[in-house]
């Protein structure tokens, strides 16, 4: 359930940023995966693909950075680093 909550929150942020930019399509997403987020890049990709299906983020290229620092204040989360869009 933790992962579903993280993805829901992340997709809301991604779509909000895209909407504010007037984007018609999200072409790339870059994220930082906290050490305690319980996400590997492959696992994140699976969850992202499900969450993005039918949205302007569907098919976006993904780039992930994985932290191993369990003491980082964001260790339990996924942070949005950037998105690329088409108008």
From TrEMBL:
GO terms for molecular function: nickel cation binding; zinc ion binding. It holds the Pfam family HypA. GO terms for biological process: protein maturation. Keywords: Metal-binding, Nickel, Zinc. The keyword Iron-sulfur does not apply. It comes from the Bacteria. The keyword Zinc applies. This is Hydrogenase nickel incorporation protein HypA. It comes from Hyphococcus luteus.
């Amino acid at each position: 359930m933790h992962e579903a909550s993280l993805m829901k929150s992340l997709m809301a942020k991604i779509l909000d940023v895209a909407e504010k930019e007037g984007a018609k399509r999200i072409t790339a997403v870059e994220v930082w995966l906290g050490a305690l987020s319980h996400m590997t890049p492959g696992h994140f990709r699976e969850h992202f693909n499900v969450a993005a299906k039918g949205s302007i983020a569907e098919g976006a290229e993904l780039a992930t950075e994985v932290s191993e620092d369990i003491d980082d204040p964001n260790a339990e989360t996924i942070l949005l680093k950037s998105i690329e869009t088409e108008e």
